[in-house]
C-alpha cells in the first residue's frame, strides 16, 4: 500500500470518529434536555401542591344551611284531633271541627300569624270529625261530611257559616278534590260512591262509583287534571287495600290504575313539583305500621318504591315546603304517638331526620303559611297546643320579641303511649277476599 492510500484511509477513519462523537453529543444533549424538562415539571407540580396545602382554611370550608326549628305559638281555644285546617286568602288559618275525646265539635277558630293568637269564629251547623275542607274559587271555605251528609260554607269576610245542599249520603273519612272547573269531587267514606258539588248552583250530582269502597284513603289532583285515589279500607279497618282508581273529569268515569306496593290506610299523599305523587306511611291489613314510601308516575301509571322513612307512622301529616322538600310530622306507630319529624328530598329520594316537635301529635293538621312557615295544631284529645316550623333566620329575628324558641325534645325521650280502646287492636287477617 502506498503513502497516498494510507493517508486516505486515515482521513476516512478520522471522519467516522468525528461523526460518531457528533451523534453521541446530540443524544447526550437531547437526554439532558428531556431530564431537565421532567425535573422542571415535577418541581412545578410540587410547588403547586405545597401552595394549595398552605392556603388559609376558609378557602376549603363548606357552609351548610342550619336546620329548621319548632317554635311554640299560641294555643287553640279547644283541644282537637281529626279536625281540618286551611289557609285563607287573608293569610289567617281556619280550623274547624274535630274531636275533644267526648264528641265531635262544631266550633271553629282563626289563627293570626301576625300575633300568634287564636280567636273563635262562627260555629258550624253540624258537629264534624273526619270531615273535609276545601277552598272555593271565590275564597270561601267548603266543608262536607264527618259522619253526616250535611255541607256548609264559611265566609271569611263575615265569619259566618251558611248551610248548603246536603250530599246524597253520609260520609266519614272521605276525600274532596277541587277540579279544574272549580267543582268539587267527593269520593268514598265507607262507600264506593262519588258525587260532584257545583258551587255556582249549590247542587250535587251523582257520578259513577269507584271500583272499591274506601275509607281513610287519599286523593290527589294530578297535573293532567285527573284525580288519583289510593288505598284505604272497605269497611272500617277491614280489607285495607293497595288498589287505586283514576277519575277523568272529561269522561266523568273511574278507571283502575297501577296498584301500590303496599296496602295502606291513614297514609299521606302529596303532588311533588316533578308531577309525581309521594305516598308515605300508614298501616296495612296486618296492622303493621309502615315506614315505606313510594312514588306514582302519571305517565306510566305505575308505582316505584323510594327511600324509607326513619320511623313508621300513620295518621301523620305531609307538607310540601318552598324548597321542594317534604316535611312529615307526628303520627302513630306501635301504640306510640310521635313527635318526631323528617324530611324527604325528591331530588335524592332520601329521608333525613329533622328536629322533633314539642308535643306528640296524631291526626293533627299542618298548614303552610303565606311566609313559608308550617303551622301544626292539635293532634290530641287533651291538648290544644300549636307550634311553627320556622327557619333559623326568622327565629333569630323574632326570638327576643316572642321569647319562645324551642328545638323540641331529644330523640331519647319516650314518645307518648296511646291507651285508647280499639286503637291498638291487631286485625290479624286479610278480609278483602
Automatic annotation (TrEMBL):
Keywords: Kelch repeat, Membrane, Repeat, Transmembrane, Transmembrane helix
Gene3D superfamilies: Galactose oxidase/kelch, beta-propeller, Kelch-type beta propeller
Record-given protein name: Uncharacterized protein
Pfam families listed in its UniProt record: Kelch_1, Kelch_KLHDC2_KLHL20_DRC7
Keyword Transmembrane helix among record annotations: yes
InterPro entries listed in its UniProt record: Gal_Oxase/kelch_b-propeller (IPR011043), Gal_Oxidase_central_sf (IPR037293), Kelch-typ_b-propeller (IPR015915), Kelch_1 (IPR006652)
Transmembrane residue ranges: 28-51
Lineage: Eukaryota, Metazoa, Spiralia, Gnathifera, Rotifera
SUPFAM superfamilies for this protein: Galactose oxidase, central domain
Amino acid at each position: 500500500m502506498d503513502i497516498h492510500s494510507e493517508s486516505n484511509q486515515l482521513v476516512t477513519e478520522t471522519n467516522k470518529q468525528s461523526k460518531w462523537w457528533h451523534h453521541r453529543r446530540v443524544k447526550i444533549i437531547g437526554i439532558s434536555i428531556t431530564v431537565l424538562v421532567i425535573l422542571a415539571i415535577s418541581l412545578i407540580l410540587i410547588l403547586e401542591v405545597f401552595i394549595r396545602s398552605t392556603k388559609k382554611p376558609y378557602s376549603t370550608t363548606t357552609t351548610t344551611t342550619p336546620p329548621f326549628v319548632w317554635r311554640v305559638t299560641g294555643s287553640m281555644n279547644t283541644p282537637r284531633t281529626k279536625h281540618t285546617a286551611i289557609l285563607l286568602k287573608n293569610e289567617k288559618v281556619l280550623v274547624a271541627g274535630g274531636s275533644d275525646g267526648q264528641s265531635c265539635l262544631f266550633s271553629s277558630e282563626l289563627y293570626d300569624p301576625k300575633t300568634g293568637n287564636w280567636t273563635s269564629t262562627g260555629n258550624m251547623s253540624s258537629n264534624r270529625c273526619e270531615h273535609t275542607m276545601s277552598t272555593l274559587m271565590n275564597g270561601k271555605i267548603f266543608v262536607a261530611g264527618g259522619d253526616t251528609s250535611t255541607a256548609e260554607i264559611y265566609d271569611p269576610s263575615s265569619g259566618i257559616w251558611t248551610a248548603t245542599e246536603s250530599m246524597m249520603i253520609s260520609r266519614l273519612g272521605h276525600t274532596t278534590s277541587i277540579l279544574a272547573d272549580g267543582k268539587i269531587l267527593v269520593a268514598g267514606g265507607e262507600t264506593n260512591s262519588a258525587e260532584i258539588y257545583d258551587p255556582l248552583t249549590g247542587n250535587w250530582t251523582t257520578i259513577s262509583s269507584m271500583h272499591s269502597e274506601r275509607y281513610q284513603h287519599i286523593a290527589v289532583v294530578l297535573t293532567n287534571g285527573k284525580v288519583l285515589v289510593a288505598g284505604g279500607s272497605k269497611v272500617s279497618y277491614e280489607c285495607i287495600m293497595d288498589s287505586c282508581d283514576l277519575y277523568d273529569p272529561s269522561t266523568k268515569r273511574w278507571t283502575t290504575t297501577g296498584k301500590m306496593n303496599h296496602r295502606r290506610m291513614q297514609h299521606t299523599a302529596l303532588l311533588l313539583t316533578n308531577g309525581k305523587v309521594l305516598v308515605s306511611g300508614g298501616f296495612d291489613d296486618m296492622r303493621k305500621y309502615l315506614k315505606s314510601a313510594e312514588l306514582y308516575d302519571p305517565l306510566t301509571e305505575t308505582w316505584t318504591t323510594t327511600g324509607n322513612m326513619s320511623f313508621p307512622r300513620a295518621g301523620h301529616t305531609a307538607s310540601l315546603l318552598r324548597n321542594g322538600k317534604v316535611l312529615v310530622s307526628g303520627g302513630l306507630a306501635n301504640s306510640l304517638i310521635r313527635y318526631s319529624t323528617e324530611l324527604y328530598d325528591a331530588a335524592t329520594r332520601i329521608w333525613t331526620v329533622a328536629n322533633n316537635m314539642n308535643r306528640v301529635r296524631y291526626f293533627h293538621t299542618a298548614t303552610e303559611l303565606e311566609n313559608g312557615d308550617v303551622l301544626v295544631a292539635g293532634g290530641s284529645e287533651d291538648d290544644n297546643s300549636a307550634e311553627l316550623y320556622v327557619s333559623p333566620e326568622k327565629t333569630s329575628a323574632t326570638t327576643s320579641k316572642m321569647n319562645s324558641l324551642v328545638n323540641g325534645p331529644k330523640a331519647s325521650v319516650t314518645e307518648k303511649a296511646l291507651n285508647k280502646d280499639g286503637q291498638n287492636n291487631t286485625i290479624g287477617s286479610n278480609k278483602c277476599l
